[in-house]
Write a structure and sequence with these properties.
Helix content is 58%, strand content 1%. The protein is mainly α. Among the domains are: 173 residues, cca-adding enzyme, domain 2 (Orthogonal Bundle), CATH 1.10.3090.10; 49 residues, no CATH class.
Length: 319
Protein backbone atom coordinates (compact mmCIF):
# COMPACT_ATOMS: atom_id res chain seq x y z
CA UNK A 1 0.00 0.00 0.00
CA UNK A 2 0.94 3.66 -0.07
CA UNK A 3 2.06 3.70 3.56
CA UNK A 4 2.79 0.97 6.10
CA UNK A 5 0.56 2.59 8.71
CA UNK A 6 -3.20 2.43 8.24
CA UNK A 7 -3.49 5.42 10.55
CA UNK A 8 -2.09 7.57 7.73
CA UNK A 9 -4.43 6.28 5.03
CA UNK A 10 -7.05 8.35 3.34
CA UNK A 11 -10.21 6.50 2.35
CA UNK A 12 -9.21 6.29 -1.32
CA UNK A 13 -6.19 4.19 -0.35
CA UNK A 14 -8.57 1.31 0.28
CA UNK A 15 -9.05 0.96 -3.46
CA UNK A 16 -5.41 1.31 -4.50
CA UNK A 17 -4.93 -2.51 -4.56
CA UNK A 18 -7.39 -2.66 -7.45
CA UNK A 19 -4.62 -1.33 -9.66
CA UNK A 20 -2.43 -4.30 -8.77
CA UNK A 21 -5.28 -6.74 -9.32
CA UNK A 22 -5.93 -5.40 -12.82
CA UNK A 23 -2.24 -5.12 -13.70
CA UNK A 24 -1.10 -8.47 -12.28
CA UNK A 25 -4.42 -10.27 -12.73
CA UNK A 26 -4.12 -11.71 -9.24
CA UNK A 27 -4.88 -10.77 -5.66
CA UNK A 28 -2.49 -8.49 -3.74
CA UNK A 29 -0.53 -9.92 -0.83
CA UNK A 30 -2.78 -11.28 1.90
CA UNK A 31 -1.40 -8.72 4.36
CA UNK A 32 -2.68 -5.91 2.13
CA UNK A 33 -6.08 -7.56 1.91
CA UNK A 34 -6.13 -7.89 5.69
CA UNK A 35 -5.31 -4.20 6.15
CA UNK A 36 -8.07 -3.17 3.78
CA UNK A 37 -10.52 -5.48 5.53
CA UNK A 38 -9.75 -3.81 8.85
CA UNK A 39 -10.55 -0.39 7.41
CA UNK A 40 -13.34 -1.35 4.97
CA UNK A 41 -16.01 0.80 6.59
CA UNK A 42 -14.12 3.94 5.68
CA UNK A 43 -14.95 3.47 2.02
CA UNK A 44 -18.17 5.43 2.63
CA UNK A 45 -15.98 8.52 3.12
CA UNK A 46 -15.14 8.56 -0.59
CA UNK A 47 -17.10 11.08 -2.66
CA UNK A 48 -19.65 9.23 -4.86
CA UNK A 49 -18.30 10.76 -8.06
CA UNK A 50 -14.78 9.80 -7.12
CA UNK A 51 -15.93 6.29 -6.22
CA UNK A 52 -17.27 5.86 -9.74
CA UNK A 53 -13.93 7.02 -11.14
CA UNK A 54 -11.99 4.59 -8.97
CA UNK A 55 -14.19 1.54 -9.58
CA UNK A 56 -14.96 1.86 -13.28
CA UNK A 57 -11.47 1.13 -14.75
CA UNK A 58 -11.05 -2.07 -12.70
CA UNK A 59 -14.55 -3.21 -13.65
CA UNK A 60 -13.69 -2.56 -17.30
CA UNK A 61 -10.44 -4.52 -17.05
CA UNK A 62 -9.74 -8.09 -18.14
CA UNK A 63 -10.39 -9.42 -14.63
CA UNK A 64 -13.57 -7.79 -13.34
CA UNK A 65 -14.56 -11.06 -11.66
CA UNK A 66 -11.44 -10.90 -9.51
CA UNK A 67 -12.13 -7.24 -8.75
CA UNK A 68 -15.64 -8.06 -7.56
CA UNK A 69 -14.54 -11.03 -5.50
CA UNK A 70 -11.80 -9.01 -3.79
CA UNK A 71 -14.28 -6.26 -2.97
CA UNK A 72 -16.48 -8.94 -1.43
CA UNK A 73 -13.64 -10.66 0.46
CA UNK A 74 -12.44 -7.40 2.03
CA UNK A 75 -15.89 -6.30 3.13
CA UNK A 76 -15.86 -3.27 0.84
CA UNK A 77 -18.74 -4.55 -1.26
CA UNK A 78 -21.29 -4.55 1.52
CA UNK A 79 -20.68 -0.81 2.02
CA UNK A 80 -20.45 0.16 -1.65
CA UNK A 81 -23.07 -2.16 -3.16
CA UNK A 82 -25.09 -3.90 -0.42
CA UNK A 83 -27.67 -4.79 -3.07
CA UNK A 84 -25.08 -6.89 -4.88
CA UNK A 85 -23.57 -8.28 -1.69
CA UNK A 86 -27.00 -9.69 -0.84
CA UNK A 87 -26.82 -11.96 -3.91
CA UNK A 88 -23.86 -13.93 -2.53
CA UNK A 89 -24.92 -17.56 -2.03
CA UNK A 90 -28.43 -16.59 -3.15
CA UNK A 91 -29.44 -19.56 -5.24
CA UNK A 92 -31.57 -19.36 -8.36
CA UNK A 93 -32.10 -23.11 -8.39
CA UNK A 94 -31.70 -25.60 -5.57
CA UNK A 95 -28.37 -27.41 -5.29
CA UNK A 96 -26.87 -25.86 -8.43
CA UNK A 97 -23.93 -23.68 -7.48
CA UNK A 98 -23.44 -22.20 -10.96
CA UNK A 99 -26.97 -20.84 -10.64
CA UNK A 100 -25.92 -18.78 -7.60
CA UNK A 101 -26.79 -15.17 -8.47
CA UNK A 102 -23.40 -13.88 -7.31
CA UNK A 103 -21.43 -16.42 -9.35
CA UNK A 104 -23.68 -15.79 -12.35
CA UNK A 105 -23.17 -12.03 -12.03
CA UNK A 106 -19.38 -12.35 -11.96
CA UNK A 107 -19.53 -14.49 -15.10
CA UNK A 108 -21.78 -11.99 -16.87
CA UNK A 109 -19.49 -9.06 -15.98
CA UNK A 110 -16.45 -10.97 -17.22
CA UNK A 111 -18.20 -11.80 -20.51
CA UNK A 112 -19.60 -8.28 -21.03
CA UNK A 113 -18.04 -5.82 -23.41
CA UNK A 114 -15.70 -3.50 -21.46
CA UNK A 115 -17.73 -0.34 -21.89
CA UNK A 116 -18.65 1.41 -18.63
CA UNK A 117 -22.43 1.32 -19.06
CA UNK A 118 -22.43 -2.33 -20.13
CA UNK A 119 -20.11 -3.47 -17.33
CA UNK A 120 -22.03 -1.56 -14.66
CA UNK A 121 -25.33 -2.89 -15.99
CA UNK A 122 -23.86 -6.40 -15.87
CA UNK A 123 -22.87 -5.82 -12.24
CA UNK A 124 -26.37 -4.67 -11.29
CA UNK A 125 -28.73 -6.44 -13.69
CA UNK A 126 -29.90 -9.11 -11.23
CA UNK A 127 -29.92 -7.24 -7.90
CA UNK A 128 -33.73 -7.31 -8.00
CA UNK A 129 -33.79 -11.10 -7.74
CA UNK A 130 -33.31 -11.08 -3.98
CA UNK A 131 -36.62 -9.31 -3.35
CA UNK A 132 -38.61 -11.12 -6.05
CA UNK A 133 -37.68 -14.78 -5.59
CA UNK A 134 -40.74 -17.00 -5.23
CA UNK A 135 -41.03 -20.79 -4.98
CA UNK A 136 -43.84 -22.42 -6.93
CA UNK A 137 -45.72 -25.56 -5.94
CA UNK A 138 -43.83 -27.43 -8.64
CA UNK A 139 -40.53 -26.50 -7.00
CA UNK A 140 -39.57 -24.01 -9.69
CA UNK A 141 -38.13 -20.65 -8.74
CA UNK A 142 -39.42 -17.44 -10.29
CA UNK A 143 -38.22 -13.84 -10.21
CA UNK A 144 -41.15 -12.01 -11.78
CA UNK A 145 -40.53 -8.27 -11.90
CA UNK A 146 -36.89 -8.46 -10.87
CA UNK A 147 -35.86 -6.03 -13.60
CA UNK A 148 -38.29 -3.42 -12.32
CA UNK A 149 -37.23 -4.03 -8.71
CA UNK A 150 -33.61 -3.74 -9.80
CA UNK A 151 -34.29 -0.32 -11.28
CA UNK A 152 -35.97 0.83 -8.07
CA UNK A 153 -32.99 -0.34 -6.03
CA UNK A 154 -30.66 1.40 -8.45
CA UNK A 155 -32.55 4.69 -8.17
CA UNK A 156 -33.08 4.62 -4.42
CA UNK A 157 -29.74 3.26 -3.28
CA UNK A 158 -26.95 2.68 -5.77
CA UNK A 159 -26.89 6.15 -7.32
CA UNK A 160 -26.66 7.73 -3.87
CA UNK A 161 -23.40 5.89 -3.17
CA UNK A 162 -21.86 5.86 -6.65
CA UNK A 163 -21.88 9.09 -8.63
CA UNK A 164 -22.52 7.94 -12.17
CA UNK A 165 -22.21 10.58 -14.90
CA UNK A 166 -25.79 11.39 -16.00
CA UNK A 167 -25.48 9.72 -19.41
CA UNK A 168 -24.03 6.52 -17.91
CA UNK A 169 -26.63 6.50 -15.12
CA UNK A 170 -29.51 6.78 -17.58
CA UNK A 171 -28.06 4.09 -19.83
CA UNK A 172 -27.43 1.66 -16.98
CA UNK A 173 -31.00 2.13 -15.76
CA UNK A 174 -32.44 1.33 -19.18
CA UNK A 175 -30.20 -1.73 -19.52
CA UNK A 176 -31.25 -3.10 -16.12
CA UNK A 177 -34.92 -2.58 -16.95
CA UNK A 178 -34.81 -4.20 -20.39
CA UNK A 179 -32.02 -6.76 -20.05
CA UNK A 180 -34.41 -9.71 -20.48
CA UNK A 181 -36.13 -8.51 -23.65
CA UNK A 182 -33.64 -9.72 -26.30
CA UNK A 183 -33.67 -13.15 -24.70
CA UNK A 184 -37.40 -13.45 -25.39
CA UNK A 185 -36.78 -13.36 -29.13
CA UNK A 186 -37.44 -16.77 -30.68
CA UNK A 187 -37.32 -15.97 -34.39
CA UNK A 188 -41.10 -15.82 -34.72
CA UNK A 189 -41.56 -12.10 -34.07
CA UNK A 190 -43.35 -10.27 -36.87
CA UNK A 191 -41.51 -7.57 -38.79
CA UNK A 192 -43.69 -5.02 -36.99
CA UNK A 193 -42.62 -6.39 -33.60
CA UNK A 194 -38.94 -6.32 -34.58
CA UNK A 195 -39.29 -2.76 -35.87
CA UNK A 196 -41.02 -1.70 -32.67
CA UNK A 197 -38.33 -3.26 -30.48
CA UNK A 198 -35.55 -1.68 -32.54
CA UNK A 199 -37.25 1.71 -32.47
CA UNK A 200 -37.82 1.65 -28.71
CA UNK A 201 -34.30 0.50 -27.90
CA UNK A 202 -32.38 2.29 -30.65
CA UNK A 203 -30.26 4.65 -28.50
CA UNK A 204 -29.31 1.70 -26.29
CA UNK A 205 -29.59 -1.19 -28.74
CA UNK A 206 -25.90 -2.05 -29.11
CA UNK A 207 -25.34 -2.05 -25.35
CA UNK A 208 -28.53 -4.01 -24.70
CA UNK A 209 -27.69 -6.76 -27.19
CA UNK A 210 -24.14 -7.00 -25.84
CA UNK A 211 -25.46 -7.28 -22.29
CA UNK A 212 -27.93 -9.94 -23.37
CA UNK A 213 -25.13 -11.97 -24.97
CA UNK A 214 -23.07 -11.68 -21.78
CA UNK A 215 -26.06 -12.81 -19.71
CA UNK A 216 -25.91 -16.26 -21.31
CA UNK A 217 -23.89 -18.33 -18.85
CA UNK A 218 -25.34 -21.78 -19.45
CA UNK A 219 -22.80 -24.58 -19.25
CA UNK A 220 -24.68 -26.51 -21.91
CA UNK A 221 -22.87 -25.64 -25.18
CA UNK A 222 -25.90 -26.36 -27.33
CA UNK A 223 -28.17 -24.06 -25.34
CA UNK A 224 -25.57 -21.31 -25.21
CA UNK A 225 -25.01 -21.51 -28.97
CA UNK A 226 -28.74 -21.35 -29.71
CA UNK A 227 -29.26 -18.34 -27.46
CA UNK A 228 -26.37 -16.45 -29.01
CA UNK A 229 -27.63 -17.28 -32.50
CA UNK A 230 -31.07 -15.91 -31.65
CA UNK A 231 -29.64 -12.59 -30.45
CA UNK A 232 -27.52 -12.33 -33.58
CA UNK A 233 -30.57 -13.14 -35.71
CA UNK A 234 -32.54 -10.40 -33.96
CA UNK A 235 -29.71 -7.93 -34.53
CA UNK A 236 -29.57 -8.78 -38.23
CA UNK A 237 -33.34 -8.44 -38.65
CA UNK A 238 -33.32 -5.01 -37.01
CA UNK A 239 -30.48 -3.95 -39.30
CA UNK A 240 -32.04 -5.35 -42.47
CA UNK A 241 -35.47 -3.88 -41.78
CA UNK A 242 -33.91 -0.54 -40.97
CA UNK A 243 -31.98 -0.50 -44.21
CA UNK A 244 -35.08 -1.42 -46.19
CA UNK A 245 -37.14 1.26 -44.46
CA UNK A 246 -34.43 3.85 -45.08
CA UNK A 247 -34.55 3.36 -48.83
CA UNK A 248 -36.44 6.24 -50.43
CA UNK A 249 -39.15 4.89 -52.68
CA UNK A 250 -39.07 6.97 -55.90
CA UNK A 251 -42.83 6.88 -56.35
CA UNK A 252 -45.60 5.64 -54.05
CA UNK A 253 -47.58 2.48 -54.74
CA UNK A 254 -51.01 3.06 -56.21
CA UNK A 255 -49.90 6.18 -58.08
CA UNK A 256 -51.44 4.92 -61.35
CA UNK A 257 -54.88 4.74 -59.76
CA UNK A 258 -54.53 8.25 -58.38
CA UNK A 259 -53.40 9.60 -61.78
CA UNK A 260 -56.41 8.03 -63.45
CA UNK A 261 -58.79 9.41 -60.83
CA UNK A 262 -57.37 12.93 -60.60
CA UNK A 263 -56.63 13.43 -64.31
CA UNK A 264 -59.49 11.43 -65.78
CA UNK A 265 -57.16 9.02 -67.55
CA UNK A 266 -58.13 5.56 -68.73
CA UNK A 267 -55.90 2.57 -67.97
CA UNK A 268 -53.23 1.87 -70.52
CA UNK A 269 -49.55 2.01 -71.35
CA UNK A 270 -49.64 5.81 -71.26
CA UNK A 271 -49.63 5.48 -67.45
CA UNK A 272 -46.33 3.60 -67.68
CA UNK A 273 -44.87 6.34 -69.91
CA UNK A 274 -46.05 9.01 -67.49
CA UNK A 275 -44.56 7.13 -64.55
CA UNK A 276 -41.26 6.78 -66.45
CA UNK A 277 -41.13 10.57 -66.92
CA UNK A 278 -41.71 11.08 -63.20
CA UNK A 279 -39.01 8.55 -62.31
CA UNK A 280 -36.55 10.28 -64.67
CA UNK A 281 -37.20 13.62 -62.97
CA UNK A 282 -36.70 12.00 -59.57
CA UNK A 283 -33.40 10.45 -60.72
CA UNK A 284 -32.29 13.88 -61.92
CA UNK A 285 -33.05 15.35 -58.52
CA UNK A 286 -35.91 17.50 -59.78
CA UNK A 287 -38.64 15.63 -57.90
CA UNK A 288 -38.73 14.47 -54.27
CA UNK A 289 -39.18 10.78 -53.58
CA UNK A 290 -41.53 9.18 -51.12
CA UNK A 291 -44.20 11.89 -51.31
CA UNK A 292 -47.97 11.35 -51.32
CA UNK A 293 -49.57 10.58 -54.69
CA UNK A 294 -51.21 14.02 -54.79
CA UNK A 295 -47.75 15.63 -55.00
CA UNK A 296 -46.97 13.77 -58.24
CA UNK A 297 -50.36 14.60 -59.73
CA UNK A 298 -49.59 18.26 -59.13
CA UNK A 299 -46.17 17.85 -60.78
CA UNK A 300 -47.72 16.22 -63.84
CA UNK A 301 -50.08 19.15 -64.21
CA UNK A 302 -47.53 21.87 -63.43
CA UNK A 303 -44.86 20.46 -65.76
CA UNK A 304 -47.21 19.42 -68.56
CA UNK A 305 -45.88 15.89 -68.44
CA UNK A 306 -48.78 14.48 -70.44
CA UNK A 307 -47.68 16.39 -73.52
CA UNK A 308 -46.57 14.06 -76.32
CA UNK A 309 -47.99 10.94 -74.70
CA UNK A 310 -50.60 9.15 -76.77
CA UNK A 311 -53.53 8.23 -74.59
CA UNK A 312 -55.36 5.18 -75.86
CA UNK A 313 -58.16 3.66 -73.84
CA UNK A 314 -58.58 -0.08 -73.86
CA UNK A 315 -61.28 -1.45 -76.12
CA UNK A 316 -64.63 -1.28 -74.42
CA UNK A 317 -63.45 1.23 -71.79
CA UNK A 318 -65.57 4.31 -71.20
CA UNK A 319 -65.13 7.10 -68.69
Amino acid sequence: MVTPSTDLWVAEDLLVPLREITAQQTYPHKSVTAQVTAQAGRVVEIDPGRLYELLTPPLCSKVPHLVLQWLRDTGLLVHVLPELDATVAFSQEADRKHKDVWEHTKAVVWQAMPRPAVRWAAVLHDIGKVSTRRFGKDGKVTFHGHSEDGVRMFRRGVVNRIGFPPDVRDRVEVLILHHLRPGHYDGDWSDAAVRRFGREMMPFLRDLLDLSRADITSRRPGKRKRCLQMITHLSHRIRDLGEADAEVKPLPPGLGNELMRALGLPPGRHLGELRARLEALHAAGELEGGQPAAYYVEQVQARGLLEGIEIVAPRGFST
